[in-house]
Design a protein that fits this description.
heterodimer, A: 6-stranded mixed sheet, 5-stranded antiparallel sheet, B: 115 residues, 7-stranded mixed sheet
Chain lengths: 109, 115
């Protein structure tokens, strides 16, 4: 079992749609959680940190369920510019950061 | 502007050659990392360094070497012992806050192709 697993994708959605990504992690001692966005042939960039209480940033909402060991990212009112690969990232402590393989999103007009 | 720079952006290497990828940061971060990304896969950790003159192997260190002589610099050498070096190489840095990992900041990457 991979340490961090994401929906394989790709997700193809029309503009304005709501899309949700899920991510599961295997190490119950994991401490920090993030969602990164990676555009084609570019470096990953932080989209959101994920907190136990859940957090929202505009059209993006991230949630963490420690009991079930999963993280989610919800994107509302999708824009063409949201097309990218979304990486689930988990830190298990001691400089051990695990990146998921990513879920590709295509938003179409 | 603070950030991480990597050079070169594209690098072509003949089989049997060693090449060195540059990574420089002016964010005053203590920790620096090297990752490798292959198509359709997540990032895999090659080496990391928590402080100057100290570094640790990651999950796929074989065929690679690093040095950390200055806080700002963390060069990666891809040796001829690396069997399949063609990949996208990403350098990152971060800080730890209250014992937890803060976000990692990435450089723009170096795309290495072995001819």
């Amino acid at each position: 079992r991979k340490e961090v697993e994401q929906d394989p994708g790709p997700f193809n959605v029309p503009e304005g749609a709501t899309v949700a990504f899920n991510c599961t992690y295997s190490n119950s001692a994991s401490q920090s959680f993030f969602w990164y966005r990676q555009d084609c042939r570019k470096e990953p960039k932080l989209l959101m940190s994920v907190y136990s209480s859940g957090n929202e940033d505009g059209r993006f909402t991230a949630q963490l369920n420690r009991a079930s060991q999963y993280i989610s990212l919800l994107i509302r009112d999708s824009k063409l510019s949201d097309s990218a690969t979304y990486l689930c990232v988990v830190n298990t402590g001691g400089f051990k950061t695990i990146f998921g393989a990513g879920t590709r999103l295509f938003v179409k007009a | 502007d603070g950030g991480i720079t990597q050079s070169p952006k594209y690098l072509f290497r003949k089989e049997g050659q060693n090449v060195t990828l540059s990574c420089e940061q002016n964010l005053n971060h203590d920790a620096m990392y090297w990752y490798r990304q292959d198509p359709g896969q997540g990032l895999r950790l090659i080496y990391y360094s928590q402080i100057v003159n100290d570094f640790q192997k990651g999950d796929i260190a074989e065929g690679y070497s690093v040095s950390r002589e200055k806080k700002e610099s963390f060069p990666l050498t891809v040796t001829s012992a690396q069997k399949n070096p063609t990949a996208f190489y990403l350098c990152a840095s971060n800080v730890r806050y209250r014992g937890l990992e803060d976000e990692q900041f990435f450089g723009p990457g170096t795309r290495l192709t072995v001819l």
